[in-house]
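Risk register update: the risk of archive-format incompatibility is retired. Evidence:
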Amino acid sequence: MRINLISKLTIATSLILLVFMLLFAYVNLATLKEMLLEAAISDADKLSETIIKSTHYEMLEDNRKRAYEMIEEVGTLQGVEHIRMINKSGHITFSTDKGEIGRLLDKKEAGCNMCHTSGETKVHASTMNRSRIFSDNKGRQVVGMAKAINNEASCYQSPCHFHSPQQRILGVLDIIVSLDSMRTLIANYRNKITILTIVLLLSISIGITFFTHRLVNRPVKKLLRQTQRIAQGDLDTFVQGGSHDEMGDLSDSFNQMTASLKVARAELEGWAENLEAKIESRTREIKQMQNQLIRSEKLASLGRLVAGIAHEINNPLTGLLIFANLIKSNPQLGKALKDDVAVIINEAERCAKIVRGLLDFARESIPQKKMASLNKIMEATFALIGRQSCFQNIEVVHDYQADLPQIFIDENLMEQVFINMLLNAAESIPGAGQIFIKTYTEKDEYVCLQMTDTGTGIKEEDLGKVFDPFFTTKSQKGTGLGLSISYGIIERHGGTIEVQSNINKGTTFIIKLPMSPQGMEPTA
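Archived output:
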C-alpha cells in the first residue's frame, strides 16, 4: 500500500505531538492530583483544628454531651466520613460510628501510628505524617487525619479537670474525609485534557495537511510532472510559479537542469550530424588514400617493368635509326625508296620518343629541391609554351595569391608537371575556351594550385584511370604517360593531385604541396 507524502508527514507529526501531549497530560494530572491531595489533607487538618477549638470550651465545662453533639453535627457535613476521639490511654471516647465507642486501639493502628513509632511518642508530627490515604469498607478512597489534643494551660488549670502539667497530649481527634470530590475533579480534568488533546491533534493534523499540500505537495507534484515530461523527451516546458523559499530554489534549479539538458541534447544531435559528415568525409579520404596507395603500387610495379622493356627496346631501336639514316643518305637509293626509309625513320623516332617517356616514367630520381614559388614557375611555364597554336583561341585567367609562401620543390620537375597539365587542358578544348589558374594556401599546411578548363571533360568511369600509364582520351596522339609522370613527381614531393570533371563542362586539377614536408631538406 502506497502512502503519500502528506499522510506520512501528518502521521509522523501527530504521533510526536501525541507522545508529548500524553506526557504533558500525565505530568499535569500527577501534579494536579498531588495539589488536590495536599489541599484535602490541609482541609482535613483545618477541620480537625476547627472541631478542637469549637469543643474546647465545652470540654472545659465538662459538657461532653454538648461537645459530642457538635462533633456529630460536623460529621454530617458532605465529605466527612468518620470522626472519633481517642484518649491518652487509647480508648475511643467518642465516634460517629457508635459501635466502636469504648474500644481500645493498639498504638500501631490507624490514628495512633502516626505519632507512635518505634516506641516513641511524637509530640509534634507534620501534617503529611499525621495523614493517611486508604480505602474504606465500601471501597472508596478516603484520607484520614489524626490531630493531637494538646494539654494546654487552660486544661490543667481548670477546676473541673485535673491533668498533670507534664502531660503534653490529652488525646487524639481522628477525622476521615472522602476524596470523591477530588477524584471527580481529576476525572473531569482528565476528560477535558483528553478532549483538548484530540481537538489539538485534529486541528494540527488539518493544518499540517493543508500547509504541506500547499507548500510542499503541490510544488513536488509540479516537479514530478516535469520529470515525467523530461523522461518522455519534452525539454521545452519549465516549472512555473516558483515560491520564494527552498522549494522555489529547487524549481529554479530544476528549470536550469532542463535548459542544460536541452542544450546538451542539441549539442549531441549536432555532434551526431557532424559525426556522420566526418565519417563520410573520412571514408572518402580513406578511399582516396587506398586508391593512391593502389595507384602508387601499380605505378611502381609498372615502372620497374617498363624500365627493363625500355632498355631492351632502346638498343635495337638505336641501331635501326642509325642504319636507316645511312641508307637514306646513300645517293644510289631511288626516290621511292627514300620516302619509305623516311617513313621508317619517322616511326622509329616516334618509338624512341615513347621509350624516352617510358624511361622518364620509370626513373625515380630524387627531386633537387630549393625554395621556389609556384606563381613564378607557372608564369615561366606558360611563357615557354603559351605561344603554341593550341593556345590561340584560349584565354588563360590567372588568380595568384600575392603572398603565396615559397616551398621546397624541384623547379624543373614542377615545370614538367605544369606543361603536361597546360597541354592537356588546351587540347581538351575543341574551340575557343578558358583556362583558370589559381594559387592559394589551405589551413596553413598546404600550398595549392588549381587549374580548371572549359573543355569536353572526362567521363565519370574514366576519372579513376587518368593517372594510369598509357591511359589517354586522345584518339590519335599521346602516349598516356604525361599525367602518370606528373602524379609520380607530385607524390615524390609529398603532395597530392586530384581531378574533378563534368562532361561538356570542363575538368579541374588540384595540386596540394606541403609547406614543410618532413624529412625533406633544401638543396643548394
